[in-house]
Design goal:
The protein starts with a strand and ends in a 6-residue tail after the last helix. It has a seven-stranded parallel β-sheet with strand order 3-2-1-4-5-6-9, with helices on both faces. Strands 7-11 form a two-stranded parallel sheet. The protein has a two-stranded antiparallel ribbon with strand order 8-10. It has 301 residues and is an alpha/beta fold. 43% of the residues are buried. The chain is globular, with a radius of gyration of 20 Å. It contains twelve helices and eleven strands. The protein has a domain of 196 residues: Rossmann fold. The longest helix has 21 residues. InterPro entries: Ergot_Alk_Oxidoreductase (IPR051604), NAD(P)-bd_dom (IPR016040), NAD(P)-bd_dom_sf (IPR036291).
């Protein structure tokens, strides 16, 4: 069996490569920057001989054949925002003999459609739902085997706080009590790998979250505990947050929904409560945010 891993240098993709190669599976890693990918994946996998890196880009159809030739199964990282790439890449993969797709989708793909969004949050979630669901539908239409892995909000989003924490500064953000069941990227990768190498998840959509709601204040506290020191949290007003995000280069059109995503989770988990899919599949409780902080403590030092 040979598995193509797209998005191979991403936070989840590199874990998929590592887990597959450690299980003895031949891996072809597709990347727009193969030299950088070889260096990164060689470090992550101990230079495993089973990992072949090729150049490929969802936006460049002429690069697909080299990536797909001789591949049996494919882990498809989101190309939901590459106009026209989804159905084309999937069709090309089937022509090259790919018989199973594991789609890295998003939890939003399982939400009910919203015909007329009433605010920035609904509009954003509907955009996410429609884009990722379109990729899932394209894969299902091929007649090949498929599994959709739908992660919730990823714990790695907290790496945006790393510069402040490294500088011994406070983490500054709005809505400190807003929380979600942040998911460890390794948990997502484990489900993807199980879907690639076993038949247990064929035809299933799996929504993977962390085990419990964790507020932003609790996230910062957990990172501090992993580092062995206190890390302060400074709450911003919505207007202060917008100004900070502008200075950080956040596009103006994203500001409203970034605030809305947090405001929606002040009481509960907003649109995404914890799911039991990971535990049902693996027999284990998902990794906690505290464990994620320990695993990533070097990123904050």
């Amino acid at each position: 069996m040979k598995v193509l891993v797209t998005g191979a240098t991403g936070n989840i993709g590199r874990e998929v490569v590592r887990l597959l190669s450690s299980a003895g599976v031949d891996v072809r890693a597709m990347s727009r920057t193969p030299d950088a990918a070889r260096a990164l994946l060689g470090s992550a996998t101990g230079g495993a001989a089973r990992v072949e890196v090729v150049r490929g880009d969802f936006g460049e159809p002429e690069s697909w054949a080299a990536a797909l030739s001789g591949v049996d199964r494919a882990y498809v990282f989101p190309f939901a925002y590459v106009a026209g790439a989804g159905a084309g890449f999937v069709a090309e993969a089937v022509r090259h003999g790919v018989s199973r797709f594991v789609v890295h989708s998003a939890a939003a793909a399982g939400f009910a459609p919203v015909a007329s969004p009433v605010d920035a949050l609904q509009a954003h979630l509907e955009e996410e739902r429609a884009a990722h669901r379109a990729v899932e539908v394209a894969v299902e239409a091929t007649g090949a085997e498929w599994t959709h892995v739908r992660p919730g909000l990823l714990a790695v989003n907290s790496l945006g706080w790393a510069p402040a924490i490294k500088a011994k500064e406070a983490v500054r953000a709005p809505y400190g009590e807003a929380g979600y069941p942040w998911v460890h990227e390794v948990d997502v990768a484990e489900i993807a790998v199980q879907a690639l190498v076993t038949d247990e998840l064929v035809g299933r959509a799996c929504t993977i979250t962390g085990p419990a709601r964790v507020s932003q204040v609790e996230q910062v506290r957990a990172i501090g505990a992993a580092l062995g020191r206190d890390v302060a949290f400074e709450e911003l007003t919505p207007e202060q947050a917008k100004e900070q995000w502008r200075l950080e280069g956040c596009p103006e059109e994203y500001l409203a929904w970034r605030l809305a995503v947090l405001a929606d989770a002040l009481d509960g988990c907003g649109a995404l409560p914890p799911t039991e899919d990971f535990e049902r599949i693996t027999g284990r409780v998902p990794r906690s945010f505290a464990q994620w902080a320990v695993d990533h403590q070097a990123d904050f030092r």
